[in-house]
Design goal:
This protein is mainly β. It has a single domain, classed as Jelly Rolls (Sandwich). The chain is built from 3 helices and 13 strands, in the order ααβββββββββββαββ. The strands form 2 sheets. Strands 1, 3, 4, 6, 9, 10, 11 and 13 form an 8-stranded antiparallel beta sheet that branches. It starts with a helix and ends with a strand.
Length: about 230
């Protein structure tokens, strides 16, 4: 009996290994649903600096299927070559203690305000310096709207988390590890009032009201790794 149990456990573990999805790949189901990989796991192909230039060596590095920030002077944010409007975005991230980073969407150049995007905040809520405001915590719409802390379950630094952003028309949702932690309607009163209290109150057009933009990985001085960056047009 003991041998049978041990054999069953072994077969179970082998099954997990065999059927675990390889990072930076799409299942056939995902392909059928229209998902597209934004990161191939081996290069920065498909990404540029915010000025549209090739990603310079030194600031970001691709190692073991992850794209990582490097603490050097030549970092800088990087963006997708393409712009997106209605989409579902999924990104795995892993941070070091105290890290502050983010993933932005609808990133574009404003008539007044410069290059901006709506930011899904990535933060170590325990050791991060920027933890004093609810709308600066992990999963927030940075400086505008806070996540629902009662629903949020974030894995600690050193472990992987998966963020999600769903944007359809003016409706936006933030997800973390499969749970929706924030939803808002761009342009309604709650949104407009929150933007008016933020650092983005003077932008033209109104902040976050653009129709499309790039996806951005933020270089903010913290060590963070990204993988399984994928998007689906909806």
């Amino acid at each position: 009996m003991r041998k049978l149990i041990n054999l069953s456990i072994t077969l179970f573990l082998i099954t997990i290994v065999l059927f675990s999805q390889t990072p930076n790949t799409l299942t056939q189901k995902e392909k059928n649903e229209g998902w597209i990989l934004l990161f191939d796991g081996v290069s920065t192909n498909g990404w540029t600096t915010t000025r549209g230039q090739p990603v310079p060596p030194g600031g970001w590095e691709v190692i073991n299927g992850c794209i990582n920030t490097v603490i050097r002077d030549k970092g800088g944010d990087i963006i997708t070559e393409n712009e997106y409007s209605d989409f579902e975005l999924s990104v795995d991230f892993n941070i070091t203690p105290g890290c502050n980073s983010g993933v932005k969407y609808f990133f574009t150049t404003y008539e007044n305000g410069g290059n901006l995007g709506c930011e899904y905040q990535i933060l170590d809520d325990i050791l991060g310096e920027d933890k004093k405001q609810a709308n600066h915590l992990c999963g927030s719409f940075y400086d505008v709207l806070p996540p629902d802390e009662s629903k949020k379950k974030v894995n600690p630094p050193g472990e992987w988390n998966t963020l999600g952003v769903v944007a359809k028309g003016k409706s936006v949702e933030h997800w973390l590890n499969g749970v929706k932690i924030l939803e808002f309607i761009r342009g309604d009163k709650v949104y407009t009032d929150a933007v008016a209290l933020s650092k983005f109150s003077k932008t033209v057009p109104a902040f976050g009201m653009v129709e499309k933009g790039h996806v951005l990985l933020q270089y903010h001085g913290g060590l963070v790794s990204f993988r399984n960056i994928k998007i689906k047009i909806i």
